[in-house]
Design a protein that fits this description.
alpha+beta; Pnp Oxidase, Chain A; Thrombin, subunit H; 5 domains; 12-stranded mixed β-sheet; 34 strands; 22% helix
Length: 657
């Protein structure tokens, strides 16, 4: 192993007490010091790690233990000893008392040096599983030391023989893990391979100096420098030491922080679990991170490390977004802790969001509705996200999200008070959009698509959402499907019953037929958004929040021919005020041929299979000849992989977005 020179920051005299204290600390923590020795026979310098024990009369004993790199101390010249102290090296030339085969006894001198950079390598005292993947297959190895840009591992002779390891690959893929958590996977370059008594000692250099987990975006997460600055605290996975740094800036997707200099055991691509972010008011959040870069700072800033969040509890993430949105704009609230329901209902009625026709539908259920919405806005269940913009103590804008499918959230209840602020509604939409931009790449957020329903003659959504769809130019990027809407299945009567149809549970062949028809008609994102594959994730989230949710898929047949696919989606009534979260969706597989009575009869039959008090209904494609239809809705769906283009359009349309 090579030993490089350190840049000496200062030389201290009368330091024997300080050195004794540091060696006592090493003994107390069962740590090790590095001893740099010179082999006079091969004219080569080596570094070994030795345990510290206490001798007599102020002496210290440094023992090799099971280290095989040096068989006998007596054939070497002891050059100096190094102790790692935070972000610097303490280096001194010991006073040699005695030299034995496996142990040396020393006294500390009065003079020592402080070096500016950390040791070249760090002994790995934590048990990590290391696998090397090459054309020889997967080989298990023991991690010995870790450096900033390299690692040293040992492949036992048994493993060499078993896997027929040959050092012919210049590059090897390395996987480091512990208890199922993968700390690192990446390509390394073989710098050196030495045969030892126990096996082959490999020196591997990290091939990539930078790491990119996600494609670059123009509209990135908003980074904020908070006052007071939060702390980030985590354990070094290689030696278990606790590291704590001040955060420079933080967003909903990651952090950056400064360390005095590049630190051994921190490098791009490294994953760390159970990281704590501590705010000044003793608020602590826990998450997992992945380092993306460790760059030299400017103007003496040391090293700047950047990391993204890779795993965070949704509730904790919402708490973080509450802090960040409030720090950016004191009037913006995400799932507000204290909200007056009287003011919220006053806002809904005054802005005309609850218009007369809508109120006629919900009036008979007003007590249940009050109870439901009080729970939604005070208990903040995980399947709902509420965004409120206030002016002083008054609500002037509102928008909400409801997780309706496995990875798709319904955006609804958007309203703004134009009398207070002409751009209040845009502020709320911007709030929600930036929240989505922060969280959609994090797996626990469970969000790949957002969708909403709007009336085609409503100018604002037609301009904004319709404009986005036209701008993105691709139905697999953003799609709009027009559907007919029936507000209450219970209230309409089938004037004609189609007795020739039969309703069955849908099979995979029925799905394929329906998907083929939909692709020909629309080519949109409906089937991707619905995620017809069985998933218990969203079901468990609803149950945990105290709600019911059921999704059943049926096929409607005349003889052996499928004429429709019917989706029964059942949640709590009026979680969406148009009851679009508690609905029957009929996909007409024979548009232009399937009669209205067939569609309505199918909807009635499926509604009778549900235990819901009442359901709404949606028909695709929109059915103009059906008298029971109340209005048409446009179903707008956005694939969040293209959220950058969404922001590009909205920021052009609204300068304050």
């Amino acid at each position: 192993m090579k030993v490089s020179e350190c840049q000496i920051a200062s030389t201290k005299l009368n330091g024997d007490t300080f050195l004794k204290n540091k060696l006592h600390q090493c003994n107390f923590e069962d740590g090790a010091v590095s001893v740099v020795v010179y082999d006079v026979y091969i004219e080569k310098t080596k570094k070994v790690f030795c345990k510290v024990s206490l001798g007599s009369d102020g002496e210290f004993c440094l023992s090799l233990g099971n280290v095989k790199e040096i068989e006998d101390f007596r054939r070497y010249i002891i050059e100096f000893i190094e102790i790692f102290n935070e972000h610097e090296l303490i280096r001194f030339q010991p006073v040699i008392v005695s030299v034995l085969k496996k142990e040396i006894c020393i006294r500390v001198p009065k003079r020592y040096e402080r070096c500016l950079r950390p040791p070249e390598v760090l002994e790995c005292t934590q048990k990590l599983d290391l696998q090397l993947i090459s054309k020889n297959g997967i080989t298990n190895a023991e991690l010995l030391w870790i450096g900033y840009q390299s690692l040293f591992c040992l492949i036992s002779w048994e493993e060499v023989r078993l896997k027929m390891w040959l050092n012919t690959d210049k590059r090897v893929t390395v996987t480091l893990s512990k208890s199922g958590f993968v700390h690192y996977t990446g390509i390394t370059e073989v710098e050196e391979a030495q045969e030892t008594e126990k096996g082959i000692l490999l020196s591997l250099h990290f091939y990539d100096s930078g790491y990119s987990r996600f494609p670059e975006k123009k509209f990135r997460s908003r980074r904020l420098s908070l006052v007071p600055s939060p702390d980030i605290i985590f354990k070094n996975p290689f030696n278990g030491s606790v590291l704590s740094y001040k955060i420079r800036d933080i967003s909903g997707g990651g952090v950056s922080f400064r360390v005095p200099q590049k630190t051994t055991g921190i490098f791009p691509g490294l994953n760390i679990a159970n990281v704590k972010i501590v705010f000044g008011f003793k608020k602590v959040i826990s998450l997992d991170i992945q380092f993306l870069y460790c760059n030299d700072g400017v103007d003496g800033e040391g090293c700047i490390c950047g990391a993204c969040f890779i795993n965070i509890c949704p509730a904790v993430h919402t708490e973080l977004m509450q802090i960040l949105q409030q720090a950016h704009d004191a009037n913006a609230y995400v799932d507000p802790a204290c909200l007056s329901m009287e003011k919220l209902w006053n806002f809904f009625f005054e802005t005309g969001f609850v218009y007369p026709e809508k109120y006629n539908i919900i009036a008979s259920k007003k007590e249940k509705l009050k109870e439901l919405y009080s729970y939604l806005y005070t208990e903040n269940p995980s399947v709902v996200k509420n965004f409120i913009y206030q002016d002083g103590n008054e609500i002037i804008a509102h928008i909400s999200m409801l997780r309706l499918f496995d990875r798709a959230w319904l955006v609804h209840h958007h309203a703004g008070d134009k009398r207070s602020n002409g751009f209040a509604g845009i502020k709320a939409l911007s709030q929600l959009s930036r929240y989505i931009n922060e969280v959609y790449r994090i797996e626990t957020a469970k969000i790949n698509y957002v969708f909403c329903f709007f009336r085609p003659n409503n100018k604002f959504p037609a301009r904004v959402l319709g404009g986005v769809a036209r701008y993105l130019k691709g139905n697999k990027v953003c799609s709009i499907d027009e559907m007919s809407y029936i507000s209450s299945v219970k209230s309409f009567l089938c004037r004609e019953i189609d007795t020739s149809i039969r309703v069955y549970k849908a099979s995979s062949m029925d799905f394929n037929d329906a998907m083929h028809v939909y692709e020909n008609i629309s080519g949109g994102l409906f089937f991707r958004m619905m995620n017809f594959e069985n998933s218990n994730s969203v079901q468990k989230s609803y149950e945990k929040s105290g709600f019911e949710r059921k999704k059943e898929i049926y096929t409607v047949k005349k003889g052996y021919v499928s004429v429709g696919l019917v989706v029964l989606l059942q949640t709590m009534s009026f979680m969406n005020m148009s009851n679009l979260s508690n609905t029957i969706i009929f996909l007409n597989l024979q548009p232009g041929k399937c009669e209205s009575k067939t569609i309505l009869t199918s909807i009635k039959i499926v509604s009778e299979l549900s235990d819901a008090d009442d359901l709404s209904a949606l028909i695709f494609p929109a059915e103009s000849s059906c008298q029971e239809v109340d209005k048409n809705y446009a179903l707008w769906i956005l694939n969040l992989e293209h959220v950058d283009d969404y922001f590009r359009y909205c920021t052009r349309l609204f300068k304050s977005f």
